[in-house]
Amino acid sequence: ITSAQEFEIAVIIMGVLGSGKGTVLLYNMLWGTEIGVLAKAFIDQGKLIPEDVMTRLALHELKNLTQYSWLLDGFPRTFPQAEALNKVHQIDTVINLNVPFEVIKQSLTARWIHPASGRVYNFEFNPPKTVGIDDVTGEPLVQREDDQPETVIKRLKAYEAQTKPVLEYYQKKGALETFSGTETNKIWPHVYAFLQTKVPQQTRKPQLLHEEKCV
């Protein structure tokens, strides 16, 4: 989020990996807001949170950001959500990260966790020293049900069916920009360069300096 004193831009980023909705939902539940209490009631019953509740949640958060630029990750996920968002905010750009499903499937199904600590391993690029064993405690690793091959395939197909109308919606509006690839470090430079063209010239130098400081 960036202060509107510099510039103001509203961006949506879409892709199977990553959702930002979960964190916002957690905070609202902890704070006991009206929407948070409503969402918690469904979760406590083991039910999925209805789409209209998630929409209200997202729009409620954005109400506090009228003087800031922002980037949404994971919302809108459906066509009705995109329409609801369009009624209250003009979206400047929608970035679609187009990664082959097979690549995502391979990455997710290789992910194992240590339940007690939350440590995450990936057998492809961040494997434990001993297969199936946590590096710190020596306890066994487990695979989340969501990361099992059959479940991953179902999730990917469901995501594709849900988001296709959303992508078409923003494509017709001329706001969609798709970046294809299989590795984050190869896709990101192109996304970054594209976003730089959307940011007013006077803000580019501070952004570059900030990034160098982080590195």
Describe this structure in words.
This protein is α/β, with parallel strands linked by helices. The chain is built from eight helices and seven strands, in the order E-E-H-H-H-E-H-E-H-E-E-H-E-H-H. It has helices at residues 21-31, 34-44, 51-63, 79-88, 101-109, 149-172, 184-198, 201-214, and strands spanning 2-3, 10-14, 68-73, 93-98, 111-114, 119-122, 176-180. It has a five-stranded mixed sheet. Strand 5 (111-114) and strand 6 (119-122) form a beta hairpin. Helix 5 (101-109) runs antiparallel to helix 6. The longest helix has 24 residues, at 149-172. Residues 1-7, 17-21 and 201-215 have low confidence and may be disordered. This is Adenylate kinase 3. It is found in: Mitochondrion matrix.
Keywords for this entry:
215 residues, alpha/beta, 5-stranded mixed sheet, disordered C terminus
Instruction: Count the DSSP helices.
Output: 8
Spatial order of strands in the largest sheet: 1-3-2-4-7
Average residue-wise pLDDT = 76
Largest sheet: 5 strands, mixed
Which bin fits the share of residues in helices? 40-55%
* Beta strand %: 5-15%
Query: What separation lies between the terminal Cα atoms?
Result: 19 Å
Rg estimate, integer Å: 19 Å
Count every beta strand, where a strand is a DSSP E run of 2 or more residues: 7
**What best-fitting shape do the alpha-carbon axes yield?**
globular
Which sequence of SSEs, written as H and E, runs from N to C? EEHHHEHEHEEHEHH
Which structural class fits the helix and strand makeup? alpha/beta
The residue ranges in which pLDDT falls below 50 over 5 or more consecutive positions are: 1-7, 17-21, 201-215
InterPro entries: Adenylat/UMP-CMP_kin (IPR000850), Adenylat_kinase_CS (IPR033690), Adenylate_kinase_lid-dom (IPR007862), P-loop_NTPase (IPR027417)
Domain Adenylate kinase active site lid: 111-146
Subcellular location: Mitochondrion matrix
Keywords: Kinase, Nucleotide-binding, Transferase
